[in-house]
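User: Before I run my own analysis I want an independent prediction to cross-check against. Here's the chain; please return only the C-alpha cells and, at the end, one sentence I can use as a sanity check.
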Amino acid sequence: MPIKKDYETPSTGAVASYHVTGLVTLDATAKTTMAMVYSYLSADARAAGKAPMYTQQIPVTGLPPDGQDAFAYADQQLIVAPASDDSAALNPARSVFVGGDVVT
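Assistant: C-alpha cells:
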C-alpha cells in the first residue's frame, strides 16, 4: 500500500509525494526487514507508467508477524518513529516517511 508524504528527493531536490514499497527482503538472522521504496511525483505519475524520481532501501527492525503481509508490515513500520534503542534508527533514511499516511 502506498505512502503519501511530501519528500524532497536528495538527487534533484524535487518533491515526491507518493511512495511505493516495491521489494521487501526479510533477514531472519538479523531480524530485519529491508524495504525498497520507489518515490513518485504523484499517484497519477505512477499510474501513467512514469519512472520513480528516487529509489532507496530502508531497514526496519523486526520481522512481520506470522500471517501478516511483508509489504503491509514494512509500510506500517516506515510511518512510525523507530524506538531510540532501535539500531535501524541510526540510518537517516529510516525516518524519511515517519508521519506519512498509508493509502489504499
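Sanity check: The chain has a mean pLDDT of 93.
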